[in-house]
Predict the structure.
Amino acid sequence: MNENLEEDKINIYEVALGMAAGIGGVTARQLLAYCGTAEEIFKSTKLLKIDGIGEKTIISLKNKELLQKAEKEIENARKQNISILFYTHKNFPQRLKEIYDTPVVLYYNGNADLNAEKIISIVGTRKSTDYGKQFIESFLKDIQKHNPLVVSGLAYGIDITAHKECLNLGIQTIGVMANGLDIVYPAVHKPIAQKMLTCGGLLCESALGVKPDAPRFPARNRIIAGMSDATIVVEAMEKGGALITAELANDYNKEVFALAGNFNATTSAGCHKIIKENKAHLITNANDLIQFLNWDIGKKNAKTYQNFQKVNVNSFDISTEEIEILNLIVEKKEIHTDMLAFTLDIPNGMLAMLLLNLEMKNIIETLPGKKYKIAGSYENRLEF
């Protein structure tokens, strides 16, 4: 397990929020924005004042068995060497915070950095052919030197081929699952999954003991798309999970690449479809991806190049209130939430929501003592 994960200690309220019936990531983050912490959510008597929060949500949170279940979940996870990551934790995948429907709790077992510098996902049909397998072998060999983290879904076909080849090459690979981490599905892939724990890891949003069912697979796909910089579709039918992942990646403003195949190959029909619809870049070899993502520039040169780029805040699609907050943070360098509320005359509940939105977009960073500053990647680069 990644020793750095010990920095983030999960608490019973955070796990309980993730396990609460009928409360998804969007609602959970809304509650967090208003209350500040998971514990305060459970202790608050004013939740009905929050827009969109109704009696059903309150009843779910007041379930007497919920905290007991959460306590048992933490104990079971610890016994199985599984880390539970909460949305506000440092080691929660930062790229996932950029998507609107990110889960609020994740379960993780492995040694890979979920915030690695380069993360890509490889997806495709379960009925893969030698053509797709050969592409994956060649592609991964050519990107090996860039030390990427490769994400896929541990399914038959393209997914398991990508995982296996990563293990062969010593490339860290994450399997995102549609069930609890104590279950490997399909079971035949359990030996590969075990090897991945020391060369990547396994990740999911489902509690321990949860079995895979149909709705959980599209939900799993949003994690695969959301935590990656780019998704590569290698062989896909005209309908199926790979195209759902590609569609989600497009929705999240992530890059999508697709491999073309024989014109009459059903296993390439999905790839041809998204290429024709301009929903994916055509990829023929690893160099197409390397150049597009500027991996060939090099870390030092890439940073220098980035520093010359000005970022217009309008490109983030943010509100007038958020621009006012950013202006004040830029002016003060670091600022306390109380000073923001006083200076801008914004109610604390609304301010918390606005700050969370900006943090989700990775524009600002939280500092100890309820202070905020512009995120390092955007310091001295924002244009208003």
Notes: The first helix runs from residue 12 to 19.
